[in-house]
Amino acid sequence: xxxxxxxxxxxxxxxxxxxxxxxxxxxxxxxxxxxxxxxxxxxxxxxxxxxxxxxxxxxxxxxxxxxxxxxxxxxxxxxxxxxxxxxxxxxxxxxxxxxxxxxxxxxxxxxxxxxxxxxxxxxxxxxxxxxxxxxxxxxxxxxxxxxxxxxxxxxxxxxxxxxxxxxxxxxxxxxxxxxxxxxxxxxxxxxxxxxxxxxxxxxxxxxxxxxxxxxxxxxxxxxxxxxxxxxxxxxxxxxxxxxxxxxxxxxxxxxxxxxxxxxxxxxxxxxxxxxxxxxxxxxxxxxxxxxxxxxxxxxxxxxxxxxxxxxxxxxxxxxxxxxxxxxxxxxxxxxxxxxxxxxxxxxxxxxxxxxxxxx
Length: 359
Hints:
This protein is of the alpha+beta class. The chain contains five helices and 21 strands. Strands 3, 4, 13, 14, 15, 16, 17, 18 and 19 form a nine-stranded mixed sheet that branches. It has a six-stranded antiparallel sheet with strand order 9-10-1-2-11-12, with helices on one face.
């Protein structure tokens, strides 16, 4: 499933996109596997065949793509070259895109943000669908997952109307809306098995402007829960976590998969791979030394699956802006790692699961 999307909340613009681009699956050669307790300060990330959907062209422009990889590469170069030769071309980016022959952009969708000299930020898009959303304006989506995302946005909008957020800034609302979509997509991929490693690997990139400079959000942790509906209900944390962070412009995804009799004594294996920008000096298969996964994060995306036996009945998500409290903490002791879960957070997950069950 391919997802790209752009929208605004108030005056805050956001673009987002997934990274499952060039292949439906992956072989072991596409990522590096490390023993968690044996990692030093640096880890080796093998540059995969995937490409980032969300790309920062310069401080004033963010461009997101879906569709044909070759058409996207050529279009990005065309747009970047046109603006470099004549900066005023950024004021009419639609004309720049239309200058590309139709046959070279007929299998390509683009959504972009551009910060103009006047200080205003504007959206532009090509071959994308506008959708009516009350929560946010200028909502446009594209990709093979367009129907899924449209349904998801409608559900999130319904929740927003029923329980409007109290006192949150437009910036936080915009980011949390994007993270909810990211969490839902990650949960769908995890519990359906439609991904890279057994087979997981999906991640959503989110970008906007901060202090008048294009910037991607980093340091997100994905956690997975199961709630068995039988015998009164039982909540269980799956010992699998996905950490998304950046090393310069390389997106680095860590999958931490643990085994053990309890949360206090888990042995983790780590799968790590790097996803470069669309236009990139990184060579496929090359090795890049990156920092090991940080145990700090800004956003915690939790996927909760309602299960009866082995059947997944429903998947839903909760997202926390969790920069300071760290509801899930990791403590290493040699080869073993203890996972500590904040009690209030776990209670909130269980209450949310039981509410899912009742509807």
